[in-house]
Amino acid sequence: MKTNRIIFLTIAFTVFFKLSHGQTKRALIFAIGNYPEDSGWQEIASIRDDSLVKRALRDQKFSDIRTVQDKEATISGIKKSLNDLISRSNPGDIVVIHFSSHGEQVEDLTGNKPDGLEESIVSFDARQPPYGTEPTKEELLKLREGYFLDNAFGTYVDKLRIKLGKNGDVVVFLDLCYAGTGTRGTAKVRGGRPPLVSRGFYSRRHQITAANKAVLQLTDEHNMASYIVIGASRPNESDNETFDDAQRSIGPLSYAVSKVFARLDSGMTYRSLFARIQSVMNDKLPQQHPVLSGNGQDRKLFGGRFITQKPYLLIDSVAGRQVLVKGGRFAGLDAGAKIAIYPAGTNNTRDARLLATGTVTQAGLYQAMINLDSDPGLKQAALGWVFITQQVFKMPPVNVGIENNTIQPASRGKVTSLFSPNEIFRIQKALKSLPDIKFSVNPDIIVSRGKGSTVDSLIVSSSGLTFDTIKNASKDTAALKSKIRSYVQYCFLKNLNVYDPEADLEVKLLPVRNGKPDTTYRNLTDSSFNVGDKFMIWVNNKSRQSLYINILDMQPNGVINAILPNNSQRIFADDLLIPAGASFLFKNYVIALSPPCGKEIFKVFASADKIDLEDIANTRGEGKRGNLSPFEALVKKSYDLRSGQGQNMSNANGSSYNLYFDIKPEK
Question: Model confidence over 408-421: pLDDT tens digits?
Answer without folding.
Answer: 444 344 445 588 88
